[in-house]
């Protein structure tokens, strides 16, 4: 659903933990030799439903990570987490990366790999089944996972949008 807006307005009172997803060393060959720079994909989250991602580029790894963290804090979203899992299954695509997320029962754990795992753990999801199809590029995987998480809606929100009771949402 394209109209879903889960953006978080302020970050002042939120304790965010950062996770480094990937670091790339970029080489630019010039007449004077090789110039190295680094790009870092960083995911930040409070492990309670708020998460954001950012990309930082700099001449040093630590500076790239710091820039990525600042960028991630600027585009936070709120994700509905219900009893440690997601409310319903969801799939999304970004570039060549396809992701599929499915709710799991308590005790399952985060069955996801690489970039998806970092995003899901930063949100605070403890039980989920996830599958990445297509490209394994961390940039596109993070963006596809965010797209899927941004489209999640809890039963209360669905009931509010349809002007019906929460019980009626589950009856169909």
Give the topology, please.
Blueprint: E1 17-30, E2 33-45, E3 50-58, H1 61-74, E4 76-78, E5 90-94, E6 97-103, E7 110-111, H2 114-123, E8 128-134, H3 138-150, H4 155-162, H5 166-171
Give a short synopsis of this structure.
With 172 residues, the protein is of the alpha+beta class. It has 5 helices and 8 strands; from the N terminus they run βββαββββαβααα. The strands form 2 sheets. Strands 1-2-3-4 form a 4-stranded antiparallel sheet. Strands 5-6-8-7 form a 4-stranded mixed sheet.
Describe the overall structure.
- The protein has 172 residues and is α+β, with helices and mostly antiparallel strands.
- It is built from 5 helices and 8 strands; from the N terminus they run βββαββββαβααα.
- The strands form 2 sheets. Strands 1-2-3-4 form a 4-stranded antiparallel beta sheet. A 4-stranded mixed beta sheet has the order 5-6-8-7.
- A hairpin with a 2-residue loop joins strand 1 and strand 2.
Strand order of the largest sheet: 1-2-3-4
Number of distinct beta strands: 8
Order of helices and strands: EEEHEEEEHEHHH
* Beta-strand fraction estimate: 25-35%
Number of helices: 5
Mind describing the biggest β-sheet? 4 strands, antiparallel
Question: What are the salient characteristics of this protein?
Answer:
Double Stranded RNA Binding Domain; four-stranded mixed beta sheet; 5 helices; alpha+beta; 35% strand; elongated; Ribosomal Protein S5, domain 2; four-stranded antiparallel beta sheet; 172 residues
């Amino acid at each position: 659903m394209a109209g879903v807006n889960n953006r978080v307005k302020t970050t002042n009172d939120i304790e965010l933990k950062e996770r480094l997803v990937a670091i790339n060393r970029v080489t630019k060959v010039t007449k004077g030799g090789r110039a190295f720079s680094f790009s870092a994909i960083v995911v930040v989250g409070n492990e309670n439903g708020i998460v954001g991602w950012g990309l930082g580029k700099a001449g040093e790894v630590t500076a790239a990570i710091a820039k990525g963290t600042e960028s991630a804090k600027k585009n936070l979203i709120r994700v509905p987490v219900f009893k440690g899992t997601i409310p319903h299954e969801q799939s999304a695509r970004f570039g060549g990366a396809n992701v599929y997320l499915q709710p799991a029962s308590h005790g399952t754990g985060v069955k996801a790999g690489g970039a998806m795992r970092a995003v899901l753990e930063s949100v605070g999801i403890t039980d989920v089944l996830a599958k990445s199809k297509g490209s394994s590029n961390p940039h596109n995987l993070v963006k596809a996972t965010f797209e899927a998480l941004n489209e999640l809606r809890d039963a209360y929100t669905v009931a509010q949008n349809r002007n019906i009771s929460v019980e009626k949402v589950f009856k169909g």
